[in-house]
What we know:
Helices cover 20% and strands 44% of the residues. It is α+β, with helices and mostly antiparallel strands. The chain has one domain (2-96). It has a 4-stranded antiparallel beta sheet with strand order 3-4-5-6. A two-stranded antiparallel sheet has the order 1-2. Strand 1 (2-5) and strand 2 form a beta hairpin. 13% of the residues are buried.
Amino acid sequence: MKKLINMKLYSEQEAENITECLKIDPITDITEFRETLFKTKKWNYFLVIFKRLKSENKKSNIKEDIKVIELFNIFKWFEKNEEYFSDYNKWKFYHHFKEIIIEA
């Protein structure tokens, strides 16, 4: 997926996949949402967001989008969605930002 935002082209094919979180419906085993964090070669970060929207007629509509995210907001995003990260994806997040994260 590619998207032009503020005269910058964000492409998941050209960027580094940092980590992702996903929520799976326990009954249907269908992904309800997935958010994947990417970093461009110029150190800009963005999210590729996949959402399955349920409608009244019980058919699923799929929405996919790219959103630019600032460094400070990445940590808010992680904290808000931490329960949806696998242990491996948590490790990928901590490993990528190890120079920024400090001990409490």
